[in-house]
Amino acid sequence: MAKSGTVGQPGSAYMIVDQDKAVRRHTFAVIVDNEPGVLARVIGLFSGRGYNIESLTVSTVTADESVSRINIVTTGTEMVIEQIKAQLSRLVPVHDVHDLTLEGPHVERELALIKVRAKDHQRRESLRIADVFDAKVADTTLESFVFIIDGDTGKVDSFVDLMRALGDVEVARSGVVAIGRGTEMVTV
Amino acid sequence: MAEKLTGAEIIIKALADQGVDVVFGYPGGAVLPIYDALFKQNRIRHILVRHEQGAVHAAEGYARSTGKPGVVLVTSGPGATNAVTGLTDALCDSIPIVCLTGQVPTHLIGNDAFQECDTTGITRPCTKHNYLVKKVEDLSRTMHEAFYVATAGRPGPVVIDIPKDVQFAATDYTNGKSASHKTYKPKLKADRDAIEQAADLLLAAKKPVVYAGGGVINAGPQASKLLTELVRMTNFPCTLTLMGLGAFPASEPQFLGMLGMHGTYEANWAMHDADVILAVGSRFDDRITGRLDAFAPNSKKIHIDIDPSSINKNVRVDLPIVADAGHALQDLIRIMKARQRKPDAAAMERWWAQIDEWRARDCLAYGASKEMIKPQHAIRRLYELSKTTGKDTFITTEVGQHQMWAAQHFHFDKPNRWMTSGGLGTMGYGLPAAVGTQLAHPDALVVDIAGEASIQMNIQELSTAVQYRLPVKVFILNNEYMGMVRQWQELLHGGRYSESYSEALPDFVKLADAYGMKGLRAMGPDDLDGTIQEMLDHDGPVIADILVDKAENCYPMIPSGAAHNDMLLGPVEEGKDAIGEKGKVLV
Predict the structure, then answer these.
(1) Which residue, of A53, A81, A103, is where some domain finishes?
(2) pLDDT band at residue A14, thresholds of 50, 70 and 90?
(3) What is the layout of strands, in order, in the sheet containing B445-451?
(4) B582–A11 C-beta distance less than 8 A
(5) Largest CB tally within 10 Å, which of A92, A177, B110, B227?
(6) Does B303 touch chain A (CB under 8 A)?
(7) What is the pLDDT of residue A18?
(8) Does residue B124 sit at the A interface (CB-CB below 8 Å)?
(9) Residue of A nearest to B186 (CA)
């Protein structure tokens, strides 16, 4: 009951997560059976135990569609991150949990579609910035563009922030997908 | 080609192949085909409970006292939702349960049909795993897999939700008794390196403590034997958690009693001052540790647990060992013997001298009274008199003061004899658990040590006990209060006993009579032994209503938010706060 982190009580029985310990961002790849309810199990675990989800993506990754890969970006202290991995591994349909942040260098990408409604100078400026960010035009009208951009979360964030300054903006983001660098493969 | 079986017949066949002899359940529309299949066979006995929560607790009592999984059969909708408390209880205490729930036919799922609920959705967070079987072809595999999942690794409850059309549909049965799961394979054997390190740490210890829990009991009676062997071999002091009582014999001199919030002075001080703690199948939960930054501050901690998520969850340990308690203990004993060294004898002598000093405080002592029955005294008398019956004795409890007194004053020399709701703290657990325990052990003495408030939460199960002629004894310590609530209100809320007094209690003797069982009452200390003896001598179910001191509090106590060396041994002096501001928000 008193597990919520609202009352800061260093030293109490429950607040074992030292507040002064650094909160870090970790990217997990969770290999699961592609069966009904598996995503609900993973999400329920995060909400039930009070962990954060910054981003979550899921898709099947095998030819027979029997296995899915869930990419989760989360934040927490070292002890919480370690618990997240242990708790995820404990779910029966979870084959394997990879903490990509710990396992070494990896590539992280997300894709975003950004609709910008603007006229005149703002409209021209949006196109110029898109060019700088290597974003492509996916759709256009005389008063709007839909840009498609991919990159790491920081790059997409910056692009969206710039577009907001130029007009009305609608954003759709895919969430992060990630994979380790090098020849080694995650077995499924 | 074998004859095709209906889904309902497959369920019964799979249960029989899994060696199930008893199912606890309650019929309803969505499980009628299964009840029909039950009717047509005689391998499996069905026990009709009076409420689905009772079915799960009865199955827990059965499982906890036998080591075999308990099986539950309930209908859809309210049948399933009523089972949720029991399932959560089994999850918290790692009890293997397979719970079959009926579901509306597949084509009606999601339609808000009569007695429909999203059973897999509701039970997802309170089961180890759950299934919705939409095709009869998946049924035999799912049944056998469910038994594997419920019992493998850290045990827990598994729900199989079975739509009614699937129960009618026919297909071939495949026996998968030895089924496993394609990816779920818990690790049982410890890494040899880790065991070697543990042996070194333990042999170098000057103030060691063994702190064992329910995981040892779940690992089977052999694990308890190994724990006992290790403790005897090393002469280390041993303390047990509430769930672990019986894993090490209480009559052994190395036993310090239970530890934690209502644990003994010597157990908690030994933990606090220890230099090496060997935790086996215990999980450092908040009832055990108290204030974390003051928990066993100068100790190296070795933690053996089958569930990696239990390690480093609350307390950072120095040496984690993921393994089954039995396997790990066996390896540890072998390697420690091979070292041909003993722990430092002089240090151990000093350590035991210190422990004996703590023991001399006699922390479980209570004031004797000639006018009123002290609840602790009632349990001690029950313990003494039950030993004279010569029967194997099993104790279940409800939740509250009586539970803690039972844990302190009733002693267990064997595992699987103590059934209590530890993690969830479910009032109403004890009576149905006693029903399940008695079914598994028809000739044993089974006593539910209860409070007058808790017992009323599942009192309908008296009817089950009477129907199946189960001679369970319900031993009610009646103080007319929800005692633990009253105690906390006294310590924490200025004695404002908000809603913790029971204004309108039933006459339990007449109630027993109404259910067709024997009712007894002890009004004062002079009646106590006679009443207990009469209860034990009667060969049917009995309620013994023991009127006890209404003001008695459960000590020793580590107030919430306090450290092990801050424990209260008795009433707090006037004007002093037992619990600090920080502790007040804790449960």
Answers:
(1) A103
(2) very low
(3) B418-419, B393-397, B445-451, B473-478, B542-547, B518-522
(4) yes
(5) B227
(6) no
(7) 53
(8) yes
(9) A90
